[in-house]
Design goal:
flat
Length: 120
Amino acid sequence: MTPSGNDMNCEDYQEAIAADPTAPVDGVAEHLAGCESCAGFQAEMLALNDKIRSALTIDTPDLHMPELPDIEDDNVVDLPFQRKQRFSMPVWVGIAASIALVAIVAMQMVNTPGTGFLLA
């Protein structure tokens, strides 16, 4: 039976089997007992699931961390840390120029006759 209450045909059963061949669906067991086509399809889907499962199984060696050598820090010098500036001067100049350009274009549009924004 479909969720709407209609009887399922072989295509509906095969769609349900393809979604998950091991999931219990109402009426599938009874249908599979009497339908060789759907039973064969389920067997194919189960074999495909097993093949995919075996393909995804990967043997990996145990992880071990290598021993790090002792490092002598007698000759190590601390370097001064300088934080990089987020924006350089040309970026700020570009932003200011863009804002000025937008303001100029807006003023030109406001003073253009026919736009409805004419200032006296």
